[in-house]
Amino acid sequence: MKTWPLRTRLTLWSALVTGLALLTFGLGAAVNLYLEEIETVDHRLNERAKAFLDSGTGGRPAELAVLVHRPAAHLLGAAFTDAGGKIVCTDLPAIADLLADDRPARKRLTAHIGGRFIRVRGFSAGDRSLVLVADLWPALDPVFDLFGAYLLALPFVLLVVAAGSWWMARRALQPIADMTRAAASITAHRLGERLPEPPANDEIGRHIRVLNDMFDRLQRSFEQATRFSADASHELRTPLTIMRGQIEEALRGGRLTPELERLLVELLDETSGLQKIADNLLLLARFDIGKSPLRRAPFDFSALINEASEDAELLAAPKGIKTVAQVEPGIWTDGDPVLLRRVALNLIDNAVKYNRDGGEVRLALNRRDRDAVLTIGNCGEGIPADRRGALFERFFRLSSDRNSATGGSGLGLSLCREIVTAHGGQIELVRSEADWTEFGVSLPALAKDGPASRSVPTTL
User: Fold this and answer.
1) How far apart are CA 43 and CA 110, in angstroms?
2) Bigger pLDDT: 131 or 286?
3) Residue 126 buriedness (CB in 10 A; 0-12 / 13-18 / 19+)
């Protein structure tokens, strides 16, 4: 499930917490005001009862009616009860049910009677008790007004809080956004760049310094590994070349037993494989350190693929594989023809190697908008879905064995990706099914009326 951005979550949480705090404060204020209003009603009832009892009245219904109907008294009724709680006289007959049992003995009571919210107070008057019933609605009006005002103002307050939280979250997260953009620009070819350090020694500043230290360590490790790969590949080229030359000379010299000749042929194949691996590693190391070996020039890409298709026929012949080439003429591109031919031959070699006997290899070159699109497919077994993501990683091989005839060195596709990327293009697995696998290479194409055809090297 897709989560909301951090800024949105901070804004919502701030508004939620503020809303809960305001509601809690409003409820607390309303309850406090309610208790104060109840206390005020009790105080008024105390004064009314004291004044009435001090007047020496006899407690007749008429006198109670005068007490109840005094201005601003908010009294609903009054009654006298005997020591047993029985009503002696009252001006409100409905109060009889309320005064049943022993409830007036509690001296004060909040209840409903006749659809009204009332306050009942009992006062001792010798052997009798005076019970006053007051209407609480006038006292509760300020409570409801206060809470209603809180509820009315709450949405506007939450909008202000949300806007302020959004602004504060944006300001607080801006350094992290800047740090993210700067970190995204640090690639294998730009390991020397660092995150801008803020002047403040706060949490973000310390985090950026830790990340920059980590980038320093990664850069040193990467440069050391790249330098080792380049140096080792360079140092291996000379002895491997010498070994290959000596083996070839021995084979040309003749006078060899069949067993020795077979051994020298196998050694020549292994030496050639090692020489190819060393060349690939050296080329990859140059790409890693940003020293691109490209020698760009406009050339006829269609002619190059036509020559590569002829090589494909030679590679496919031993296995009885049929090759089909559909090359649109006149497609030019700007790049290194030697390296791009290497890409084409590598894909062709894989298409033949991982094909079935009597299968088919199909090459196609077409212009699509401003790109030259090369596709190379074969009818061998498909690539498992769980392994497609690692196809272009170095030393990745579908076969688990180390046989160069079936597994290769695992550098071919990674080298193809580096070459194509350096030309501003893209290489990808276009299709992989049980009976068909296809790779695609797209490169920027020149205009249809490109420069005159140039000769294309035929050797790597």
Assistant:
1) 15
2) 131
3) exposed
Give the type of residue at 356. R
Supply 373's token pair. 């699109």
Would you state the pLDDT for residue 56? 64
Cβ count near 139 (within 10 Å): 21
Homologous superfamily in CATH for domain 6-143:
PAS domain (3.30.450.20)
Residue 416 contacts residue 408 (beta carbons within 8 Å):
no
Topology given in CATH for the domain delimited by 297-444: Heat Shock Protein 90 (3.30.565)
392: three-class secondary structure by DSSP: coil
Q: Report the amino acid identity of residue 317.
A: A
Angle of CA points 82, 86, 90, to nearest 5°: 90
C-beta separation of 274 from 239 below 8 A? no
203-288: CATH topology is Helix Hairpins (1.10.287)
Of residues 124, 125, 119, the one with CA closest to residue 40:
119
The structure's pTM equals 0.50
Q: Render pLDDT for 141-159 as a digit per residue (tens, 0 to 9).
A: 888 888 888 888 888 888 8
